[in-house]
Design goal:
The protein is mainly α. Helix content is 68%, strand content 0%. The chain is built from 8 helices and no strands. The relative contact order is 0.07.
Length: 143
């Protein structure tokens, strides 16, 4: 009895994992390739409306691939991260990074447009209201 058959006999999850690997090898797909996150997969998930899942795949790609990725893939990953983040401040940071690090790249113009939209939205939302327009949250007190 080898390690794999012993593990499969002792743990149900091991049988499932072993069956998955066997199936992938049977259909001719390399298990490592099937598990590797790709930027194409991220865009496919976004198109399908599965943005939270796309963010998870993108973060996995970022953690495992960014240090060895060529500049064009890194630029694309930054663009995808900026577009998929729910925080405006983080998106702005990433769009600025694109413009700064890849000023002539294919995503730079789009990043500039997004930065303009973010600035316009920020100017429409004042940080504080003038004193005479503040709404009071209770009965006014007369002194």
């Amino acid at each position: 009895m080898n390690y794999f058959t012993a593990a499969a006999a002792s743990a149900p999850w091991a049988r499932s994992a072993l069956a998955t690997v066997a199936l992938l090898l049977f259909v001719g797909v390399d298990a490592a390739q099937a598990q590797a996150p790709t930027l194409d997969r991220v865009e496919e998930l976004v198109r399908d409306g599965r943005v939270p899942e796309a963010r998870m795949v993108l973060e996995t790609w970022w953690a495992t691939e960014r240090n060895t990725a060529d500049p064009s893939k890194l630029e694309r990953a930054i663009w995808l991260r900026a577009r998929s983040t729910p925080q405006a401040e983080q998106a702005e940071f990433l769009f600025r990074r694109l413009v700064r690090e890849f000023p002539d790249g294919p995503y730079a113009e789009g990043a500039r447009e997004r930065l303009t939209m973010l600035a316009a939205a920020r100017s429409r939302q004042p940080d504080s209201q003038p004193a005479n327009t503040r709404q009071r949250s209770g009965p006014e007190r007369q002194l």
